[in-house]
């Protein structure tokens, strides 16, 4: 543990030193393109200048924001010929000017003459804000013979949650290809067109099932009304242009993968030490076609490696269906996705190995995971089935190593302990872990792993004892015995280890309204495992004022002070949870998770709210979130960042002031990030020596601006001291 602490202190010192950087604002260098943007309104400040090229091994785009007087400087462009052009709110996209690094390019932009012209480049959340869900007063739903709203929906927030968790997991709502119906002339109505479009392609069954969760006819009516009003000329209010630090953002983007690929997450370094793999490749997982995507940012070369399985791929069912209810409008009956490995969420260790969650076999577990085994974890809580397991890629040998796990895996995070313990979410009923040091020493899958169910200390004796209260399949309890502890099925989605306690790990749940759970494994697991659970303050708790409620926890991360952050994808709040504010952590009152409301703080994210929602629910969607513990972005240490998956952005919060910095990706529209990662390539290099990396990957790449043929991307965010720093 001393080694880890020393490493952490070393990083902190390097970060502190590197906060001071010297620049000569506005002085163009050999690798820069600079100039001034004007229009009939005069100088255009807070608009984007974009340089793109196809001369490199993969397509490369770099964008900056204009500062005072409409001046800009695009720094450090690789040698190539670029198309340079302007995009900004209130302007029409300018024609491209061909230029090479070292050139001065002044552009006269054209002002949009109508709100509709200007709105073409507004982010998806502004268009989505025009949708009208049923009024809060119509809930609870009374079914097809009543108001058409599913009787399973008790609150308006649950309806919105279906839109966010059902549709926006794969793509934006409000981007052009969704809000406009290009083939409307083939249908009797917009409602019929929507009924058809949610059945198209390999995701058709999934989309159709989501629509039915609303109460199918009522859900279709909402979407049809929305697109009809837009077709009739409805436009949203204009977004604000970038201000302050937002004008200092430099965005670099490389394409990777193919037009069919869904590159879900990426990794650049070890979260515990952002200097690992400095200047090295960026790795992403292609969840739709079972590949590891690799980008070398120095050579601009993107490559792919097939992720293997132990079993015959034909015997391992993937996540994505190999059939479709209705042919795709873009690909017909072609099966463009095949994902038996279904890889997800890479992480890097201190040696630069890339760990990921991936299927390696069918769902049936080996005998040592099941009841009757002498495995102490199987004796404590046997596991009959699992999904993904653990895999790592060794860059030096270019080989994959597969490790069978008794529990399913989804997200993964390393603890800050001597064993390099790797924790996993996705186990359904348990939280699992792998002692990677033991595995490296022995190669033994069984002795290297463990797991524990999430059991609350509801009898308050400070430990977990069996038997315990067991939930039914709906999570309810009959005849709860207060003398017993209580097992809860939290719904394990995101996961993060606690930097202040190397025996503790946190998970997030996407089950409405959202929960966090903490597992402390103790010194002798599984017997010493104790869990806690904390529910997001919501309308389900009548003691919480409506204006302080939210819902939709998905992502999870933690700062160096032990405060947990989760972006609420449904209500679009950024929520923090501070366990030190909890007076009670065990006993009979903890079973519903509502015993520490004071630990929660909710921060509404910027952007418009969905029409008619009460309380207001913003139109953005936060697929995940991340905390910049080491100031890799340049906005400070421990800055929480939410993915603005429906707003083409990352959203960085200053918790002290409550102020937001919106890092918008202006082109191509449709930016949809999952996980984030920050890396320090040069601790003495100022802003140029650091940056935050994010994938650009909707599940359906043809939704991205440019349409069919567009490939996913990997994006690097940097914040310089001013808009002209080079």
The low-confidence parts are 1-28
Find the count of extended strands (DSSP E, 2+ residues).
Answer: 40
The major beta sheet can be summarized as:
8 strands, antiparallel
Task: Give the CA-based shape.
Answer: globular
The CATH topology of the domain at 2-119 turns out to be Immunoglobulin-like
Strand order of the biggest β-sheet? 8-6-3-4-11-40-39-38
Strand content: 25-35%
Number of helices: 11
Residues in helix, %: 10-25%
CATH C-level of the domain at 2-119: Mainly Beta
What does this structure look like?
With about 725 residues, the protein is an alpha+beta fold. Among the domains are: about 1-120, Immunoglobulin-like (Sandwich), CATH 2.60.40; about 125-230, no CATH class. Helix content is about 15%, strand content about 25%. An 8-stranded antiparallel sheet has the order 8-6-3-4-11-40-39-38, with no helix packed on it. Strands 1, 2, 5 and 9 form a 4-stranded mixed sheet that branches. The radius of gyration is 25 Å and the shape is globular. The protein starts with a helix and ends in a 7-residue tail after the last strand.
């Amino acid at each position: 543990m001393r080694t880890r602490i020393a490493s952490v202190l070393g990083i902190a010192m390097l970060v502190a030193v590197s906060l001071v950087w010297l620049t000569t604002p506005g002085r163009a260098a050999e690798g820069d393109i600079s100039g001034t943007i004007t229009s009939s309104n005069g100088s255009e400040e807070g608009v984007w200048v974009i340089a793109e090229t196809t001369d490199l091994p993969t397509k490369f785009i770099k964008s900056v924001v204009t500062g005072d007087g409409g001046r800009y400087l695009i720094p450090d462009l690789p040698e190539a010929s670029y198309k340079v052009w302007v995009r900004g709110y209130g302007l029409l996209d300018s024609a491209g000017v061909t230029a090479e690094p070292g050139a001065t390019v002044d552009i006269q932009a054209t002002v949009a003459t109508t709100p509709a012209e200007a709105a073409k480049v507004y982010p998806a959340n502004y268009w989505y804000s025009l949708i009208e869900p049923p009024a809060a007063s119509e809930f609870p739903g009374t079914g097809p013979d009543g108001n058409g709203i599913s009787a399973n929906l008790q609150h308006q927030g649950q309806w919105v949650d279906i839109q966010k968790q059902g549709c926006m997991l794969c793509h934006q709502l409000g981007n052009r290809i969704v809000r406009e119906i290009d083939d409307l002339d083939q249908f009797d109505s917009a409602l019929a067109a929507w009924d058809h479009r949610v059945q198209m392609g390999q995701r058709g069954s999934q989309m159709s099932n989501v629509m039915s969760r609303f109460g199918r006819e009522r859900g279709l009516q909402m979407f049809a009304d929305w697109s009809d009003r837009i077709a009739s000329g409805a436009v949203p209010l204009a977004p604000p242009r970038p201000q302050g630090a937002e004008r200092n953002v430099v965005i670099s983007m490389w394409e990777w993968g193919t037009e069919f690929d869904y590159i879900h997450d990426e990794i650049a370094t070890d979260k515990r030490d952002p200097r690992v793999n400095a200047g090295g490749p960026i790795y992403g997982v292609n969840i739709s076609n079972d590949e590891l995507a690799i980008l070398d940012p120095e050579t601009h070369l993107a490559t792919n490696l097939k992720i293997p399985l132990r079993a015959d791929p034909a015997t391992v069912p993937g996540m994505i269906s190999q059939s479709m209810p209705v042919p795709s409008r873009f690909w017909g009956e072609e099966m463009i996705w095949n994902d038996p490995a279904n890889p997800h969420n890479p992480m890097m260790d201190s040696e630069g190995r890339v760990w990921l969650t991936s299927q390696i076999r069918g769902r049936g577990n080996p005998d040592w995971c099941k009841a009757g085994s002498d495995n102490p974890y199987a004796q404590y809580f046997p596991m009959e089935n699992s999904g993904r397991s653990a895999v790592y890629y060794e860059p030096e040998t270019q080989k994959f190593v597969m490790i069978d796990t008794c529990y399913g895996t989804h997200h993964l995070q390393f603890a800050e302990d001597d064993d390099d313990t790797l924790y996993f979410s996705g186990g359904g009923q348990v939280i699992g872990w792998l002692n990677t040091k033991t595995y490296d020493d022995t190669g033994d899958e069984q002795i290297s792993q463990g797991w524990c169910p999430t059991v609350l200390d509801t009898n308050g004796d400070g430990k977990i004892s069996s038997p315990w209260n067991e939930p039914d399949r709906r999570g309810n309890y009959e005849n709860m015995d207060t003398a017993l502890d209580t097992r809860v099925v939290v719904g394990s989605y995101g996961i993060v280890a606690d930097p202040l306690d190397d025996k503790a790990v946190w998970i997030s749940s996407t089950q409405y309204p959202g929960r966090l759970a903490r597992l402390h494994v103790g010194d002798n697991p599984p017997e010493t495992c104790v869990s806690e659970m904390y529910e997001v303050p919501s309308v389900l708790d009548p003691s919480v004022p409506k204006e302080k409620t939210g819902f939709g926890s998905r992502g999870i991360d933690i700062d160096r002070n032990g405060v947990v952050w989760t972006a609420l994808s449904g209500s679009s709040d950024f929520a923090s949870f501070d366990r030190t504010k909890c007076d009670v952590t065990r006993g009979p009152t903890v079973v519903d998770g509502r015993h520490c409301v004071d630990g929660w703080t909710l921060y509404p994210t910027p952007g418009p709210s969905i029409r008619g929602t009460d309380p207001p629910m913003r139109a953005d969607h936060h697929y995940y979130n991340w905390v910049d513990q080491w100031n890799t972005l340049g906005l400070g240490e421990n800055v929480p960042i939410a993915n603005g998956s429906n707003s083409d952005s990352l959203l960085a919060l200053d918790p002290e002031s409550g102020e937001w910095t919106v890092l918008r990706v202006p082109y191509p529209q449709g930016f949809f990030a999952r996980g984030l990662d920050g890396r320090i390539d040069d601790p003495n290099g100022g802003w140029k020596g650091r940056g935050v990396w994010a994938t650009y990957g909707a599940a359906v790449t043809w939704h991205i601006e440019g349409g069919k043929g567009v490939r996913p991307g990997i994006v690097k965010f940097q914040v310089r001291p001013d808009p002209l720093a080079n």
